[in-house]
Amino acid sequence: MMRTVTKILLALLILAGCREQTQPIQILSPTSMAQVTSTTFRVEIRGSISPSQLILLYNGQPLTSTEYTLRSVGSHSLIQGTPRSSRLVGGQNRLTVSLRTTAKTWSQTVSFLRQGGTPSPSTPIDFRRLSRDMQTRKTAYLQQLARGTDLHAQIARLQLRQKPLSQPILDACNKVDKRKDTSDFTMATLIRLAHLHGNDPLLPTSVQVRLENSIRNFRYWLDEPGRDNMIMWSENHLLLFASSEYLGGHLYPNKIFPNAGLSGLAHTRKARVRILRWLDERWRFGFGEWYSPVYLAYSMGPLLNLVDFAPDADIRNRASMVLDLAIFDLARLTHRGSFGVTAGRAYASKKFSAKKQNVRGLIDILFATPQTPAGGYVANFFANGSTYKVPHVLLAIGKDTPQRLVDRSRHGLSFEEAPRHG
Question: pTM of the full predicted structure?
Fold first, then answer.
């Protein structure tokens, strides 16, 4: 019985999307139709009109409701009832079809594209306003950040043409000089500082010198001399080390980096290979640390550095494309400010509270979520002088709040598929 109804439902979904909506919808009859002869069902087709082909709305009024009896009549049956075509528009429509018996209900939602028809009656989205509003929030976040006392706050102060505190910068240099765990997080921030304000007269000369020395003496990869506790091989660390080596070498191309004995230019060329491979794998296979409320931020930070400072236009463009994908994930999967979906590498505290998520601050800036604005690693990078342009449609998707959303996505490869990709 259930298999039969499922087949009927699938046939209905297929034909509902393919036939002109002013005509009856046919249901292809499987050979087992006789098993449900004379069983009465109530069919409801619910749908709503979307403002564009990308952003769907839900909970529309029923397009039609009819009772009918399924009977075995050769190769097909007809529903005696027609959807009211005045509610359907050209472009994307969404229908939920339910089959009910006295005991059970089967329901499935389908999106279909109708050719022709009238334009959507919904209010057009003001994309320019979305962008302006986001920029306003970005500026407000920067002003709030500048009141802090950490390394990111000193960059914010320089961005606002305020004199920074020297000690947080020197403390950060001391950490990377000792090559402590997560020094790559700190180095990426120092790289941003050096590119934006390395020669800024507001930054004391002694701090400028210490900053350059820390960048040039760092250990950037496994093939370089040194023993330490720095982790280099997970997804975010791979890009953090490679991007900082690439951009650090670009800052001082003709100077020797003492730890490896290579020039800055040689470091740039070496790291470029790793960066391109990382970007290619994210584009083809998605993130290994998928939807992580923790570590996605530490991949997006170095991506912003590449967009803002890479001398190679190809790397800038590819990094921007991968950022688009990451923000698309945030836009469609954030619920009331919480990026609380299935994730690779997520800790309990980041799952239980949106306020503690490392991507939370960026979500606040992008989509104006209702919670109190929060900080965060990638939000600090984005607010501190980033030139990355968020596509308007991603801002619009992030502002759309459907009551129900089913998302099916995939990341990575199966063992069977791996040989085809080398």
Answer: 0.71
